[in-house]
Structure formats: structure tokens, C-alpha cells
Amino acid sequence: MPSDALSTTFAALADPTRRAILARLSDGAATVGELAEPFEMSMPAVSRHLKVLERAGLITRGRAAQWRPCQLEAGPLKDATDWLEHYRRFWEQSFDRLDDYLKELQSSRAPKKKS
């Protein structure tokens, strides 16, 4: 099991079911039953996914009578985004250099105008 928070976040995000659950929670709090509806899996399987998300700090579970609504916690997602930002800038700079190179190639191959 990953030991640092960022690794735990990425491990939780590695599963498409957990990403779908987070996407649903971005619309607002939901019960376990509501989160389970779109998936063809048992309630215990959904609960295991929720436990992974909860351990990663991506969701919290409250108490409202007999319901335990889940809520998105965006802090770990911000940390992951901040870490990825460095690499986004790297790729943008690489694409900018490639674009400049391609423009240079195109201009050197353009037919010369006769005077």
C-alpha cells in the first residue's frame, strides 16, 4: 500500500469505478445506494471502493439518521493537480518547440518567388 498521500491518491484514482464515483459526487453528496445504482456490482464491492476513496481522503462519510451520505473532498485532487502541473508545462513547451520547428521546415520548403 502506498505510504505517501500523493501515491495513495493516484492509487485510488487508478480504478475507473472510483473515478466514476468521484464524478458523481462532484454533483453533490450521495448515499451508498445512490452511488451503487449505475454499477453492476454488489453493495459490499461498492463499499470497498468507498473505503479506498475514504482512506485516500477523497471522500468523507457523514451521518444523517440511518443514511451515511458520501461527500467529495477535493484537497487531495488539488495536490495531484499541482504535481501534474509541472508536467503539463513540460509538454506545452515541448509542443511549442515542435510547432516552431515545423514552421521552420515549412518555410524552408516553400517555393521561392521569382523577381
The CATH class designation of the domain at 5-73 is Mainly Alpha
Strands of the widest sheet, in order across it, are 1-2
Rounded mean pLDDT is: 90
String of helices and strands: HHHHEEH
- Count of DSSP strands: 2
What is the 3D shape? elongated
End-to-end Cα distance = 72 Å
In percent, how much strand structure appears in the residues? 5-15%
Any descriptors?
mainly alpha; Arc Repressor Mutant, subunit A
What does this 3D model show about the protein?
This protein has five helices and two strands; from the N terminus they run ααααββα. The mean pLDDT is 90. 63% of the residues lie in helices and 5% in strands. Strand 1 (59-61) and strand 2 form a beta hairpin. The chain has 115 residues and is mainly alpha-helical. Strands 1-2 form a two-stranded antiparallel sheet.
Short description:
The chain is mainly α and 115 residues long. It has helices at residues 5-13, 16-25, 32-36, 43-55, 75-109, and strands at residues 59-61, 70-72. A two-stranded antiparallel ribbon has the order 1-2.
Secondary-structure map:
Layout: H1 5-13, H2 16-25, H3 32-36, H4 43-55, E1 59-61, E2 70-72, H5 75-109
Antiparallel strand pairs: 1-2
Helix pairs in contact: 1-4, 1-5
